[in-house]
Task: inverse folding
């Protein structure tokens, strides 16, 4: 049986997890494997080419500060908390299921 610890913690009140979208303009030529690896540590799921959804107890500012170290100078990064209402069409991951 697979237990989703995020749900367990969310229901018992120990940790408050919020859903965030992380969007990037990756403007430099080069490898962003370290960024993608760091996103995997948050169990982030790709939504669009350079956009991921993830659950975290961190704030948007904290996530931005964590992820900016994996970007090149000049790249852009936006971290946005997602509200209860959300919809997508042909996204790589269905936002309504997150």
Result:
């Amino acid at each position: 049986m697979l237990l989703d610890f995020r749900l367990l913690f969310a229901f018992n009140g120990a940790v408050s997890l919020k859903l965030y979208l992380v969007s990037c303009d990756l403007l430099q030529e080069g490898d962003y494997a370290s960024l993608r690896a760091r996103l995997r540590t948050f169990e982030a799921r790709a939504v669009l080419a350079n956009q991921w959804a993830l659950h975290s107890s961190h704030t948007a500012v904290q996530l931005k500060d964590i992820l900016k170290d994996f970007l090149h100078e000049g790249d852009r990064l936006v971290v946005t908390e997602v509200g209860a209402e959300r919809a997508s069409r042909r996204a790589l991951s269905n936002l309504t299921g997150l």
